[in-house]
Specification:
about 25% helix, alpha+beta, 15 strands, five-stranded mixed β-sheet
């Protein structure tokens, strides 16, 4: 006779299942294990993805070095052009068939696709050294974009002794300042990364997956611009070795449209200014770098005459400061006046004509100080024409630009950095008068050239 019926009932009841308390404890334990294991797994997986992209870049770097040894520089083999990246990519593809090498304008879409670009470098005396720089860029499945830079010879990545070749020695990007001489790096390899989330020290999480993937091409990452900007790695943000850090958080909200095929108002132009006018078709600006293929206008940053005017240049009678535009006479009255054009694209021609008149002297006058500005190493800055000044006024007052038939008015607040008063245009209306525009009200009219109104240089580019 079985004796199972003699066991206490509480032991038999255990066969019916777990209590709610026991289930809750089990779920907590599983949650703790998952919270430890899953991030560790994801981190290891993303690290493996990043290593794959880095490995692809390194084999392309080796191919680039072989190319340099046979070619004498990084220019492509057939036409000796620096930056003719489609041909250069084909040259490197022959040397390294195990990855896809693509042109600088083509974004890398996976770790096995490497976008390349050759760039020129300059000496400390602003001497062009030729095609001595090389960039290779690859996109990781983790959502990060990795880039390497190889400089054989050179101190600067842009003409005019700007954008020094530097390597950031910090462990994060919180130190973004560039000290031109002390931060110059030994020529050789340097590495950087764009990631969808910045480090805690950066405190900025603006870079998104889509923006990074779009910017993961050598054309964007080889701009040679010193300042920080969205979606590209500045020279100061490259490191001496691969690091799992973010190398380019957004600083301000504007991207540098030198790195893209099109520009928009608010982005940073090639001269280091801010784009305020974007045309749907090309216009002509005689004397500008873009000449007959101009599409955009950018304005110089506040403090322009203090920080970057050439040595010996005379400031205006009301001197410009780091926070205020200078107050200049347009020009002393004279018998000759030729800068009468009003349209978009006519500002540089007007300004050149004005500076050619010697009556009353040129030093410290509106046209002269704008033509002397050298922001971004550019020498084609000028005093805006009537219509160009009107577009600048609209941008300054946060109004829609692009339609020259619409005049600036007092709607919206004035952006920081502009004077709430009169600005000179380069459009003359007589021997003693020229057109001004008031940035407080948007109104404009004729004004005696002897008045000391505010001045801001602009330039055109394509």
């Amino acid at each position: 006779m079985h004796s199972w019926h003699k066991f206490p009932r509480q032991f038999l009841r255990r066969d019916s299942g777990f209590t709610l308390t026991e289930l809750a404890i089990a779920m907590v334990v599983l949650g703790v294990i998952a919270s430890i294991a899953i991030p560790s797994f994801l981190g290891s997986r993303n690290n493996a993805y990043d290593k794959e992209a880095q490995a692809s870049i390194e084999v392309v770097l080796r191919a680039a070095k072989f190319h340099y040894q046979s070619q004498g520089d990084f220019s492509e083999a057939s036409s000796l052009q620096c930056g003719d990246s489609a041909v250069l990519a084909a040259d490197l593809q022959k040397l390294e068939p195990n990855v896809d090498v693509v042109a600088s304008t083509v974004s890398s879409t996976n770790p096995r696709v490497v976008s390349v670009q050759a760039v020129s470098t300059w000496s400390s005396n602003a001497e062009l050294l030729g095609c001595q720089g090389f960039y290779a860029v690859a996109y990781s499945s983790s959502g990060s974009c990795w880039a390497a830079r190889l400089i054989i010879e050179g101190k600067f990545l842009a003409s005019g002794s700007v954008s020094p070749v530097v390597v950031n020695t910090q462990t994060n990007t919180s130190n973004s300042a560039i000290t031109t001489w002390s931060a110059l790096a030994v020529n050789g390899n340097a590495f950087g990364a764009l990631k969808p989330q910045t480090s805690a020290a950066d405190g900025d999480n603006t870079n998104g997956l889509v923006a990074i993937k779009t910017a993961c091409k050598a054309k964007t990452q080889s701009t040679g611009i010193a300042d920080l900007s969205g979606s590209y790695i500045a020279p100061s943000q490259f490191y001496s070795s691969w690091r799992d850090v973010v190398a380019s958080p957004y600083i301000a909200s504007a991207a540098n449209c030198v790195t893209t095929d099109t520009c928009a108002a608010g982005e940073t132009g090639p001269g280091g200014g801010t784009v305020f006018y974007a045309s749907t078709s090309t216009f002509t600006s005689v004397g500008s770098d873009c000449n007959t293929s101009c599409k955009y206008l950018e304005y110089a940053p506040i403090g322009w005459i203090v920080s970057t005017t050439p040595s010996g240049q005379t400031n205006c009678e009301i001197a410009g400061t780091s926070t205020a535009d200078p107050g200049c006479r347009m020009f002393d009255a004279g018998a000759t006046y030729n800068g009468t054009a009003t349209a978009i694209g006519s500002g540089l021609a007007n300004t050149t004509l004005i500076t050619g008149v010697s009556s009353g002297g040129n030093a410290g006058k509106a046209a002269t100080v704008t033509r002397a500005f050298r922001g971004g190493g550019k020498s084609d800055w000028f005093l805006p024409s009537r219509d160009e000044l009107n577009e600048l006024c609209k941008y300054a007052r946060q109004q829609t630009t692009g339609n020259t038939a619409t005049q600036c008015d007092s709607t919206n607040s004035l952006r920081t950095g502009f004077t709430s008063g009169n600005y000179w245009s380069s459009t003359e209306t007589g021997a003693a008068t020229a057109i001004y525009q008031n940035f407080a009200t948007g109104s404009r009219g004729n004004r005696d050239k002897a008045e000391r109104d505010s001045v801001r240089p602009v330039r055109a580019f394509g």
